[in-house]
């Protein structure tokens, strides 16, 4: 995917990884629409992109609101004439708790932003990207939590990032050849994610104080967001589906895969003719029609 000259939209682009992706895109010559709950932060990033010599707009965006997401898409198309890249990046971290003690408000908040936000971005942008018939790309920010279970205490977050992986994987199968899909799966990154609870809406529990200690830990131990963003856009340029950044994160992924493989070997080994139960061709024909492409 060529980046120079494209129009791109980044959700959660006001801070952290989204900001860093917006800057890498701007440096590569993309025009960037930056959407964020924090309009001031989005405006600051838009100024940084303009200072790099590219075009940028800032937009007050709540990814949980479909109408607002549709307006974000309209604003990006209006500003740049065309949009070829969507970065579904906005996300929040759930309070660190055992699952049995997690609240339903925590669940609703984390899933409405991390999963609902990706779906709403896809609904607002993808039909237009596909209709344009030009090369385009959707980059979804997952996490090492999309690959397996890196650690306990973040069950809702892990479940939400598994859902981002699943949405991304299905989306890639549904897209025509000119539209690529990637899922970015970083481990710990220095960002303002530790402040996510301060931005929590009243309807879903309301804001709460964040831990300065968690912030210090995250920013001291985490990979630099600029490095993650460089890797993300390099992966988009290559057309990679999985974009990984933290080498140790292979462990939970390998553990998951070995567990799946040994379960099949022990309980359901392959036999001649077993594909009669495989629905994938039937489903593809139902949804995509004979051309194998989305309408
Ligand atoms: N920081 C990490 O360790 C890490 C690791 C892996 C994946 N991620 C993922 O990276 C993405 C970006 O997170 P980050 O670490 O840069 O955090 P961040 O908090 O610095 O940035 C997230 C941005 O999203 C915005 N946002 C939050 N809710 C929103 C909403 N409803 N609508 C619009 N914008 C909203 C915030 O205002 C913020 O600017 C998230 O999806 C996160 O889950 C982060």
Description:
- With 295 residues, the protein is of the alpha/beta class.
- It has a single domain, classed as 3-Layer(aba) Sandwich (Rossmann fold).
- The protein is 47% helix and 12% strand.
- It has ten helices and seven strands.
- The chain has helices at residues 16-27, 39-51, 66-80, 104-114, 116-132, 155-174, 212-221, 225-238, 250-267, 280-288; strands at 7-11, 31-36, 56-60, 85-88, 136-141, 179-185, 242-244.
- The protein has a seven-stranded parallel β-sheet, with helices on both faces.
- α6 (155-174) links the parallel β5 and β6 (179-185).
- α1 (16-27) crosses α8 (225-238).
- It is globular, with a radius of gyration of 19 Å.
- The two termini are 22 Å apart.
- Bound molecules: nicotinamide-adenine-dinucleotide (NAD).
- The site of nicotinamide-adenine-dinucleotide (NAD) has 31 residues, from α1.
- Nicotinamide-adenine-dinucleotide is lined by residues 11-12, 14-18, 36-38, 41, 61-64, 89-92, 113, 141, 143, 186, 188-189, 191-193, 196, 199, 222.
The top-level CATH class is Alpha Beta
Fourth CATH level, the homologous superfamily: NAD(P)-binding Rossmann-like Domain
The overall average pLDDT, rounded, is 95
CATH architecture: 3-Layer(aba) Sandwich
How large is the share of residues in beta strands?
5-15%
Order of helices and strands: EHEHEHEHHEHEHHEHH
Helix count, DSSP H or I runs of 4 or more residues: 10
Number of E strands: 7
* Range of helix content: 40-55%
Unreliable segments of 5+ consecutive residues? none
CATH topology: Rossmann fold
The distinct bound ligands, ions and cofactors come out as: nicotinamide-adenine-dinucleotide
Main sheet properties: 7 strands, parallel
Shape: globular
Query: What count of domains describes the coordinates?
Result: 1
Distance between the termini: 22 Å
The spatial strand order of the largest sheet comes to: 3-2-1-4-5-6-7
Radius of gyration: 19 Å
């Amino acid at each position: 995917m060529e980046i120079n000259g494209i129009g791109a939209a980044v959700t959660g682009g006001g801070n952290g990884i989204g900001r860093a992706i917006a800057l890498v895109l701007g440096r590569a010559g993309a025009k960037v629409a930056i959407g964020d709950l924090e309009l001031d932060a989005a405006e600051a990033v838009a100024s940084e992109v303009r200072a790099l010599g590219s075009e940028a707009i800032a937009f007050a965006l709540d990814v949980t609101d479909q109408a607002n997401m549709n307006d974000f898409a309209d604003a990006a198309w209006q500003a740049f004439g065309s949009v070829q890249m969507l970065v579904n990046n906005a996300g929040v971290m759930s309070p660190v708790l055992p699952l049995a003690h997690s609240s339903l408000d925590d669940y609703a908040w984390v899933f409405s932003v991390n999963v609902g936000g990706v779906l709403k971005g896809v609904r607002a942008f993808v039909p237009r990207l596909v209709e344009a018939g030009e090369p385009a790309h959707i980059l979804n920010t997952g996490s090492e939590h999309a690959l397996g279970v890196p650690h306990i205490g973040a069950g809702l977050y892990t479940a939400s990032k598994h859902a981002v992986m699943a949405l991304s994987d299905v989306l890639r199968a549904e897209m025509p050849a000119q539209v690529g899909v990637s899922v970015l799966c970083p481990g710990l990154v220095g960002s303002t994610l530790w402040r996510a609870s301060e931005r929590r809406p009243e309807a879903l529990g309301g804001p709460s104080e964040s831990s300065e200690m968690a912030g210090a830990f995250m920013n001291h131990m985490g990979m630099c967001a600029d490095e993650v963003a460089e890797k993300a856009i390099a992966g988009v340029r290559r057309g990679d589906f999985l974009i990984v950044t933290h080498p140790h994160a292979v462990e939970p992924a390998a553990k998951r895969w070995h567990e799946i493989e040994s379960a099949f070997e022990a309980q359901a080994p392959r036999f001649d003719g077993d594909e009669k139960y495989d629905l994938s061709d039937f489903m593809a024909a139902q949804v995509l029609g004979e051309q194998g492409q989305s309408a």
